[in-house]
Automatic annotation (TrEMBL):
Molecular function terms from GO: rRNA (cytosine-2'-O-)-methyltransferase activity
Annotated protein name in UniProt: Ribosomal RNA small subunit methyltransferase I
Organism: Rodentibacter rarus
Reaction catalysed by this enzyme: cytidine(1402) in 16S rRNA + S-adenosyl-L-methionine = 2'-O-methylcytidine(1402) in 16S rRNA + S-adenosyl-L-homocysteine + H(+)
Predominant cellular place of this UniProt entry's protein: cytoplasm
Domain RsmI HTH: residue ranges: 242-279
InterPro entries: 4pyrrol_Mease (IPR000878), 4pyrrol_Methylase_sf (IPR035996), 4pyrrole_Mease_sub1 (IPR014777), 4pyrrole_Mease_sub2 (IPR014776), rRNA_ssu_MeTfrase_I (IPR008189), RsmI_HTH (IPR053910), SAM_MeTrfase_RsmI_CS (IPR018063)
Protein's gene: rsmI
Amino acid sequence: MNDLSGILYIVATPIGNLKDITQRALDTFSQVDLIAAEDTRHSGLLLSHYGIKKPFFALHDHNEQEKAAVLVEKLKQGKHIALISDAGTPLISDPGFHLVRQCREAGIAVVPLPGACAAITALCASGIASDRFCFEGFLPAKSKARRDKLEKVAEEERTLIFYESTHRILDTLADMQEVLGEARYVVLARELTKTWETIVGDTVVNLRQWLSEDPNRTKGEMVLIVEGKTKQESEAEFSPLAIKALTLMAQELPLKKAAAIVAELYGYKKNALYQFGLENL
Ligand code: SAM
């Protein structure tokens, strides 16, 4: 550790309600030489609300690696820097990872100041298991890639946390219904800490229906908390996707052949699938 170097502070800012700033964050802003931010105009307005005026340095996702090196040099020269993002905790679906990595490699002290984070705020009000969870950030924008990603987590028993946007929420829930099954329990936490804060939970099929009834229900910023695969589901014989594949293939092929292909694809016993097909299709 270089004693003459400055310190990089990772400072969480509010996700809506401006009162959710910490005293320590405000003290740190007053003490540092520079504030590294995603959108310097947006952050300038935020900090002016708290009466703080400081030089800013722009650090975006697309220029982070290169700009981080410049910040590391400033830190080596003894400057103290606070890293903030547009909202919430930096690095959580926001820039900062490369900067922190480079600082740690250069022996520069990194001091985190905890505060708001939409994922954790949503999780703790969801009523879904909070002892073990996986944060998945944003799902891909394109449906094929999104389904592939959902398939990778379909068997996960821990709670899943996703960030989602107003434009994609209905498509994402449609894909979740298809890949995770319509009975999967999901909580939507929207506009947290703001005037229109809404936290609703239901099966994915019911939630999708409820949201599609009124466009206002899909507005704003949102987090999806998805219950992990339950023991009941794990014990259910076949996944919803395997059943769908069997149904479609059995329309084109003899059931025995369809069952053999689906069994190979999804790792089931072909006789068990064939039997299921005889009884249910
Ligand atoms: N770093 C931030 C954090 O700590 O939560 C997240 C940044 S990410 C670019 C922005 C996403 O976080 C939004 O699209 C939304 O999914 C979620 N988010 C941020 N603020 C929110 C809020 N007030 N209510 C619900 N979700 C929010």
